[in-house]
Amino acid sequence: MHALGTYPPNIIALWDRKGYDIDVTAEDLVLLQEGTVDYIGFSYYMSFATRWREENAHFEFDETVDLVKNPFVKASDWGWQIDPVGLRYALNWFTDRYGLPLFIVENGFGAYDKKEADGSVHDPYRVDYLRAHIEQMKLAVEEDGVDLMGYTPWGCIDLVSAGTGEMEKRYGLIYVDKDNQGNGTLERSRKDSFAWYQKVIASNGEDLA
Length: 209
Prior knowledge:
By secondary structure, the chain is α/β, with parallel strands linked by helices. The protein has helices spanning 9-18, 26-34, 63-66, 84-98, 124-142, 192-202, and strands spanning 40-43, 49-50, 67-68, 102-106, 148-151, 174-176, 188-190.
């Protein structure tokens, strides 16, 4: 709706099936056309796999009952499926459907990180995750013609997870000394992923080693 300036046919069909009476005026439609977005910004962390249910003939997704584990991909400690190819698929899907420039505003890996006695934090799993997703992003641009404006990982520094309320579900490139109970000094330490991503930025994504 915000990209095309009109209500998609599948949404209108959904409203009809559910008996929703949406009062859309001619003025509303004009405003929709005038207020479309210039680009689409989105977050990507994982892909979902869903199961078919006979009582759900229209495939109206319900996260509480429809999600199933995908046996063909790995997952994080919190069960989030690691699917970098899914990012390339999403970039192409957005391009095919909307034809607008895209911006990946969040992409990251939540994990239990361990701070060593010397203050270092070794997180090769995070580097592997980010590298694989950047590689697929580049393929989408160079081989598929996707118009990608930019990419920002999540996140720069550890903070409380909005999804679970945990401090120990860490996404940052910088470690923060604080646990789930609020104990800690808030001292900050650069993880291995910090130095790696610094190199990625300096090379404009060319050096992913």
